[in-house]
Sequence to fold (516 residues):
Amino acid sequence: MSAAEKVQRADNLTLDTIVSLCKRRGIIFPGSDIYGGLGGTFDYGPIGAELKRNIRDAWWRANVYERDDIEGLDATILMNPRTWEASGHVDTFTDPLCDSLGPSKKRYRADQLFEEEITAYEFVDVTDGEPTPIVGAKLWAPTKKKAKEFYKQYWEKHLNLEGRRVKIEEIAGSAKTAKYSPDDGGELTEPRAFNLMLTTHVGPVVESAAQVYLRPETAQGIFVNFSNVQSSMRRKVPFGIAQIGKSFRNEITPRNFIFRTREFEQMEIEFFCKPGHLCKEGEWTDEQWHEHWVESRMNWYYRYGIAKENLRLRNQAADELAHYSKACGDIEYLFPIGWQELEGIANRTDYDLKRHMEFSGKDLSYFDPEMNERYVPYVIEPSAGADRSLLAFVCDAYTVEKVRDDKRVVLKLHKDLAPVKCAVFPLLKNRPELVEMARNLARDLKKEFYTVYDDTAAIGKLYRRQDEIGTPYCITVDVDSLEDQAVTIRDRDSMEQVRIGLDKVKDYLLAELKKE
Ligand code: GAP
Fold:
């Protein structure tokens, strides 16, 4: 049996555990922290920035470098506003928003609230013996206990009843099945459409003519460049365009750490293919390309370490589909908050290119030299979130192991994703020869991969620190190293140690880091 006995992986993991690890170890901090934050924004610390970068690189490598049918692109965040009229975002990129009429005045996405059997309660002031109903104080709750909680948290302060005695009474015959504020039991306003696009202005004058949007998806930058890329790179359909970049959405209820934020990063491909009805025998239809991409994207998550049992595919029902799509497969991950979308793979048909043709007046059709005719390609769109992927990779890698009488937390990240590849420690920091040898080794390794030198704690603590950020290899320079010119390399997962000559360390690590 290995030195370590695994006692926990994501099963009983909570999001709070991940949030605290991320803050403690320099992975993710709340945005604008010293000013009290800004809702729905997070900053990536030194370790998180490296991890996200490795995720982006892994995605780019698998989709752009390892395939021969994809080109890369880096389009702007600010685009001509007509883009968003054509894409349908100005008219339809909305969430139904409602407000609590109770004292919390909280705002909700109506589609995220559930109907429940509820009853109306009123508050009666009984301080002076004579019960007097308090005007305007009525709330809805599934139970009296819940009504009391709402009262304690919001209504008592709002009604300014300090020192008064209040009874909570059910209003007979009021039971109904409806939505209500889960914070204060208040009634809700009628839902109204709230556009999720954030705006800013270009030029020196803040006027509506100068208003532009911060892109809510990277996809449209690809569509408007379809012809540019196709002709400059002499591409034949089928081929795709890949892009990674920031997107912005004024989410009404950003929540669950980096799962839903207002500023996030997307990794999107628009894959242009021949519409099924034009395909000859043996040519892949848009539906077959869709299946291909679903499989390819599932495999990418497996390749980088997501456990099979934590990933699933869910095909969207007809009434869930976005206005532009004919089918959509959602790749879902079992986050600590439950099964949630990680990536959507939609068949967008020719909707986008046709809309841009209509709004721009430019011909975006493709001349197929084999058919000797023009058509507007269909589009398969694998659309992933870099931040959500990062959260999934961290949750999946999070492991607690029992080591003798102690326990250790270790992020068993895929080596390609691990932020730091190697850490070098001198066993004794008061021996200048050891420090110098360790520093020289770290300096040399830095030329190949991200290596850190650390001598700020005892060796056991240094190991734990690196385990928590998923560093695959730790090297210790000890007193014997001065004699034998060799060092000890410890493997993160097995915790086994090997003694390697100083001159072989680099090649050893390069070979180990390459192993799948
Ligand atoms: N172009 C299609 C599109 O944008 P989407 O389902 O709205 O589709 C794709 O977004 C992916 O982007 C999601 O699966 C998710 O990973 C990520 N994403 C979307 N909104 C997000 C948000 N507010 N915060 C973090 N990630 C988000």
User: Anything to note?
Assistant: Residues 96-192 form one domain. Residues 46-65 form the longest helix (20 residues). The chain is about 30% helix and 30% strand. The longest strand covers residues 338-349.
